[in-house]
Amino acid sequence: MIKKHRGRNEGSIHQRSNGSWRAQVYQSGKRVSKDFHNKTDALTWIRAVQRDIDQGYLIRKGSITVGEYCLVGWKAVDFPCEQRPPINIQV
User: Fold this and answer.
1) Does an H or E element contain 31, and which?
2) Residue ranges of domains in the chain
């Protein structure tokens, strides 16, 4: 038998009046949604977002502030330290 609805905390997919599909997921009481041209893409997005939520990533729509990027994004990137040779300026 085919399951006709998704379970709790699995997100939702519905067709809009213009024919596009909207996928929605909830994280920490906030809804994140995205529109797609077909249902398959919406389902793929929901699965990817749910996987990210399960791994502990914060899913947000919109942009983040510079302070948030410095606290979260920049520290997560591991850049090797480079030592530049001293510059000798002769006058």
Assistant:
1) strand 30-36
2) 12-76
